[in-house]
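Hi V.,

You were right to ask for the full record rather than a summary. Here it is.
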Amino acid sequence: HDVLNKFENIENIHIIEQKNKGFSGARNTGIDYATGRYLMFLDSDDEMLPNGINALLDRAYEYDADIVEGGFRYIYPNGNYSNNPSSNEIKEISMPLGILEGFFWAKVYKREMFDGIRLPEGYWFEDSLNLHILFWRSKKSIIIPELVYGYYKNENGITHTSKKKLKSIDSLYITESLIKDHLKMGFDITLDYYEYFLRMVRLTYFRTREMDEEVRNSIFLCQCHLYESYFSSFSTGVREMVKLESSLKTQNYKTYVYCLELQ
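Predicted structure:
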């Protein structure tokens, strides 16, 4: 708090205090108060790399882009790091699904992308909003070669600890909720969207693999229901997903576990 107070008299900085509402609650409040043309999200334990903000905004204004994504650096507890560029050149894309990364960080968004949209509060894995809604709203997205974001690998973070907690089932809940929102907003169910759903089925499996067998089986049955309700007319074009697709189609739990444990 004392650190923040040092900035309270700077004209374009606004300090907002609220009870802890998690990542989504903080981001939603930021969206509510934002007045600029573009938004950017920075997690509290990460950092922007030198010139990262300028690199993103320069391309955003140059291309009048809805979303701009840069590369990032994983920073490990021992001080080592690995670089993960998004591209070796500037690329303009019309449909970011399957190209842009699903996380909120390392990007800037036009503020109007969030008109009528807020992140689901009280859930983990809320960045699924990108792949279900925001990427579908984008008419022009840009990926740039510059590294803009430093992501600190934290062994105590949600990514590493969630598998042991019942709340990891949020991965299923938020998928189901956002599929319904996707349709309410008038977006189509396409083959690309179906391939994303299969990836989410796989990801949810690994997020919940340490749950009791009864819970894991129930999650599988819910996934089968989602497949039957929204995606049964599609066939995957990804060889590694064929057996997973078959397990959902036939509601074969053993095949589901077997094919995912082999990946």
